[in-house]
Design goal:
Length: about 170
């Protein structure tokens, strides 16, 4: 083994009012074995009927509804909050189109969905769309016996869709 010159000590320069720090030279130190960790089994909890928290009586959600000819996914998606403006915009648009009082419009469905592509579930003939899934919203409204589907993307306001396609199954 070749003799090596002693390396100068490692010194960190002073910072502000703190003094310089000298690190110990461990390059020639004898390695020490590391103790193996000991596993200590944790006591298993014993469940008793008294220790289980009482579950509040939660209301059962209504079954999902569907628009004519298009089934709603089996798993209900989270509803779109009524105050986010999407439902109100769809209701206002339909009321203006049909010249009816907005209070006569019933909201059948309002939920977050994932659309299959950039057409947002409402493709126009002859147009090409991005082939990526698009997060969005579906709002289904009813006036008298007719239902109307409004589609939206996260960055696009809801619009009336005359040729609707269903969103992806189980989308949320």
């Amino acid at each position: 083994m070749l003799p090596t010159a002693a390396a100068p000590p490692l010194v960190a320069p002073p910072v502000g009012d703190a003094p310089a720090v000298v690190a110990p030279d461990v390059r020639d130190a004898t390695p020490q074995p590391i103790a193996e960790p000991r596993l200590i089994p944790a006591p298993s909890p014993v469940a008793s009927p008294a220790s289980k928290p009482a579950r509040p009586n939660l209301p059962t959600p209504p079954p999902p509804r569907s628009a004519p000819g298009i089934p709603v996914a089996e798993l209900p998606a989270p509803p779109v909050p009524q105050d986010d403006g999407r439902v109100a915009a769809a209701v206002a648009d339909l009321a203006e189109r049909l010249d009816v009082d907005p209070m006569t419009i019933e909201v059948l469905d309002a939920r977050q969905v994932t659309w299959r592509d950039g057409s947002v579930g409402c493709p126009a003939p002859g147009l090409a769309y991005s082939q990526a899934e698009v997060p969005g919203y579906l709002v289904v409204l009813r006036v008298d016996d007719a239902s109307y589907r409004y589609h939206a993307a996260d960055v696009r306001a809801p619009f009336l869709c005359d040729t609707p396609q269903a969103p992806l199954e189980g989308s949320a």
